[in-house]
Amino acid sequence: MKHIWLTGMMGLMVGDALGLPVQFSTREEMKAKPLTGMEGYGAFLVPEGSWSDDGSLAMVTLCSILEKDDVDCKDIMSRFADWQFKGEYTPFGYAYDQGRTCLEAIYSYAKGTDVERCGQTGERSNGNGSLMRILPVCLYGYEQKKRGAVSKEKALEMVHRVSALTHAHLRSKMACGIYYFLVKAVLECEGKLQERLQRGVDEAKAYYEREIDNLSELTYFGRLFDMDAFKMTEEDKIGSSGYVVDSLEAAVWGLLTTESFKAALLKVVNLGEDTDTIAAIAGGLGALYYGYENIPAEWLEVIQRREWIEELCGRMDKV
């Protein structure tokens, strides 16, 4: 596929912007008044097309990779601090919708903690704040592996290290790793989306099963390993909280149970709760399958700082 950076990143940014106005809404509230398109002035009183911490930190990561042509964790973390304290990489010059675990890591870094030890490791730090921004690392790892520049193990190491900047618990790192395998399968496999996603989780499971320390954590992702069964899961059994497993499951479920990019994103947003992040996770993956041309034009047109995002993605696609 050509233009994978533009496609994947705009899918992520559109998902973030679509879900942001109704973030924190309950499922019951969303059922009573479903979202049908891009809106503004909701949870954070920002205009339509505004993206939040999800988009900002993904763009931070992209910008660092573009400049360094590498995954430089110290540089990425320094840019995270610029986002929080200087309002860089944001739509309007200030950061908003920051997650607690990300903030704890950034403040720890700002106080002088080594970049390798800033990430939170507790059980309760398994939010979706690293999964929401991991797509650029997945794309870079995929391209580098395809060129023969890195091994599969090295690509996963990059994914894990970037997750661990803020979310260093094994479960969070594995969620990002599973997402890498899903991205890889969508890009390089043939067949329908469900078949590709199944290939992705099959490869992820085989990879993580090699280490005994991973086995107990792998069980948290067990529902994803049988896409046929998971697709049939009732909506009330799908969580849409900020817990990393809920978020990954909801994003995949939305893609499995729809047949277009637009339908998938509206379905996950209308689950309620952490709407922007789940839609960003689904959006990046969904756009890579359906293609840039199938992202609704009316959604793309209102994305804040669209020209800046597209210019940087275009540069990555030429590397």
Could you walk me through the main structural features you see in this protein, from its secondary elements to its overall organization?
With 319 residues, the chain is mostly helical. It has a single domain, classed as Orthogonal Bundle (ADP-ribosylglycohydrolase fold), CATH 1.10.4080.10. It is built from 16 helices and no strands. The protein has helices at residues 4-19, 27-32, 53-68, 73-86, 100-110, 135-146, 152-164, 170-188, 193-208, 215-218, 227-231, 244-256, 261-269, 275-290, 297-300, 306-318. Helix 3 (53-68) crosses helix 4, helix 3 (53-68) packs parallel to helix 16 (306-318) and helix 4 (73-86) packs across helix 5. The longest helix has 19 residues, at 170-188.
Task: List the total number of helices.
Answer: 16
End-to-end separation: 14 Å
Which structural category do the helix and sheet elements fall into?
mainly alpha
Q: For the residues shown, what is the average pLDDT?
A: 97
Number of strands: 0
Instruction: Provide the helix percentage.
Output: 55-70%
How many whole angstroms does the radius of gyration measure?
18 Å
What is the 3D shape?
A: globular
Give the low-pLDDT segments: none
